[in-house]
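Journal club prep — side note

Before the paper discussion, L.F. wants everyone to see what a predicted structure for a comparable chain looks like in token form. Sequence:
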Amino acid sequence: MTISKISTLVTTSWLRQQIQSAARSATISNKLRVIDTSWMPNTEAGSYREFYQQGHIPTALFFDWAKLSPVTKDSAIGFPIPDPNVFQDYVEDLGISNHTHVVAYDRFNSRTSFRTWYYFRLFGHNQVSVLDGGLRKWVSDGNHVTTEEIHVEPEEFDVKFQPHLLRDYESMVKNMETEAEQVLDATGAKGHRKGHIPGAISIPYDTLFNEDGTMRSAQELKKLFDDAGVSLDREVTSSCLLGLTACGLIAAAHILGKENVPLYNGSFAEWSALSSPDMISTTE
């Protein structure tokens, strides 16, 4: 099951083989943990009941990433970074150790999977991948889903916070003066019309994917970055509207060998709330 270098993405065929191999064992191993990160805002029954309990990949556990990011009334940040101790306790209860290969997926457009992928890396766990194409690709490739829920024993997980993977408002303001980092914007055209950080380079999240929801090839991703005028030889920071789709750009850069792209977590939601009008660009 172990692979020499954990890839950003894993295929449905690879995951199926790992699940089948694990099924031949009498115990549930902590070497691989599949997590369902499906989420949509304002789901009446909650994501766990609305999505996970309706059907999930065998052996998958529900990962409520939004629960880890409770919004406070006095914050303009859409999804705050979890408290390290809270994150540690949460993943330990899912039977995840520092030696576990975590595979995240969701049933929509993978934005929550990439956000979860980013969380694990932010807290020092690089053994994490995203299922390429998510649940949609899993089903279209002929794999079954289940409503059976497994139970795992807690594991020990040591958080090693990586501050270089995170940017705040003050650092982004400073970057406007220094231009030390290229700022990417994953917001699509509809959201982009609300404005953006001056100088931000647009690479819409949706352009990263094929029609089946899988990510484009490395060559195609490289062309997207090149055509946008982004040099991955320079420092890069990723942003969007709420800090979700920006993680997809971070993953795309990771595939291309740029391993340490930070996220401006507050993204435009925070930027527009704290900045004066002259610091908000409305031009394309």
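L.F.'s comment for the group: The CA atoms of residues 84 and 159 lie 7 Å apart. Keep this in mind when we get to the figures.
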